[in-house]
## 1
Amino acid sequence: MGVGEPRGGLPLRLKNKVTVITGAGSGMGKATAKLFAAEGAKVICADISGKQDAVAAEIGNAAVPIHTDVANEGDVRKMIATAEDKFGRLDILINNAGFGGPMAPLHEQTAESWDRVHSVNIKGVFFGMKYGITSMLKTGGGAVVNISSASGVVGWKHHSIYGAAKAGVNQLTKAAALDYAGMNIRVNAVVPGTMWTGLVKMSEEFPEPPPGTFRLPGIPMDRWGRAIDIAAAALFLASDEAAYVTGVLLPVDGGYCIGFSGMAAENTGAPSS
Ligand SMILES: NC(=O)c1ccc[n+]([C@@H]2O[C@H](COP(=O)([O-])OP(=O)(O)OC[C@H]3O[C@@H](n4cnc5c(N)ncnc54)[C@H](O)[C@@H]3O)[C@@H](O)[C@H]2O)c1
């Protein structure tokens, strides 16, 4: 049985859980919306692109699309209110919307890039948590999963602004986990490595990596990750199976982060254990 395939009579893992997913029009957000709906969740599919309409239509009655710019506080407030209006509550929030911004050495980056990348990748997560958690507090609990990046854990060349935003998401995750640990609200993050999604431009032409490009030197598992790998990790963290898990940054990266620290230790002669 593969991820997302019929579970042969096993209980649904998210039955009637009301879920908001940002960036649900593409890539990991789309995969997460479809997987969560297959596991019984009601999903609000939020995106700025317009693609959320097709994703919600594909899912059917369990999904509601909403046009949302996560960098806009009013939009985020409306997105959370939509979950409450349509389904009476909010149980799960997946803060997934994001983009990489221009790749360049730091001195060539601009203030405009800084503002736009940070307004979506970290301020958008702050807004989501602020209004999502406010809603969860009214009903006695919930789960937040933030989609971060390996670039927020290790350094990625030419990704300084993006990496700084994602490192901030990791800290928001850990601090908020402590703020609400006694209030039945769990806050965790998934830390993707290099995933074959809309963020990788070639994926528009090739839904799967073309032969020869699927291998990815530098990744211990030697291949790209798939959107469904992130959706599956988000499913675990959002579900009651992770009832005692909070403040975790879960790498889903083919061993990249741990391999990176191993390589660094090798290069410096430092012990790798
Ligand atoms: N693809 C990778 O290699 C990779 C690696 C690490 C982390 N990530 C992170 O994973 C998340 C999902 O990315 P993806 O790879 O699925 O990319 P994607 O481009 O396929 O999907 C991102 C979605 O977010 C939406 N979005 C962008 N800005 C938005 C905004 N202001 N408001 C609402 N929606 C907005 C886009 O329209 C798009 O549908 C992002 O946060 C990204 O930073 C991706």
## 2
Amino acid sequence: MSKIDIGRRILSENEKYALDNGRLLSEGGKLCLNMISSPGSGKTTILVRTITELKEKIGIGVIEGDIQTDIDAERIRATEAPVVQINTEGGCHLNAAQVAGALKGLPMDKLDLIMIENVGNLVCPSAFELGENGKVVVLSVAEGDDKPAKYPAIFAKSKVLLINKIDLLTKGAAEDFDIERVKTDARRLNKEIRIFQISAKTGEGMSGWYDWLTEFVRNRQSQRA
Ligand SMILES: Nc1nc2c(ncn2[C@@H]2O[C@H](COP(=O)(O)OP(=O)(O)O)[C@@H](O)[C@H]2O)c(=O)[nH]1
Ligand SMILES: [Mg+2]
Ligand SMILES: [Zn+2]
């Protein structure tokens, strides 16, 4: 009788690429974060401000995922950070094979951290591992405070939640947005999640996020030293 190994799960094509990406990153001592949100929550604005603030301390490279255009890559390029654009031509999430290709286009020896801006979509990007060390979910106050309840997967899986555009709360533009509800719902899904309330436009609240990111990179470097 032939023997079948049912203990070994068959890896999907995406999982294989994600494992390879993770191995490549960890062998090089690089960290990688996967940023996920709806379109327009402020991912690119957050990246531009973060890179501008931290570029003397941390070598940050960016992989930009968009359905079309290199508008966001151009915005990143203005900071002088290395950036590779992926156009998914209609695809609503990045996959690990696309990221494997993009990693080859970055000057890895100059980088500590690779930030991936996923395609704007709160749903399926959370289901495709890219080989990252963590996910960062961005929710802007303009989108409503029911999003952790309605889209739990990404909040359950993320290391960090950035609640962006808090400058709008005081302008009456999102006055019914209940920050405490978002925090309670997100923590119910994920006890470990770190939450920062920020405005990428004015800079308010960004220092907590910069400190978290700097610690994240420093911890990894001291583990390797
Ligand atoms: N008022 C306000 N607008 C913001 C903030 N962050 C981003 N925006 C604006 O929101 C729009 C979408 O931002 P973008 O960074 O392109 O979002 P992405 O699609 O998630 O990359 C742009 O017009 C930004 O200027 C913020 O903190 N406050
Ligand atoms: Mg963007
Ligand atoms: Zn998708």
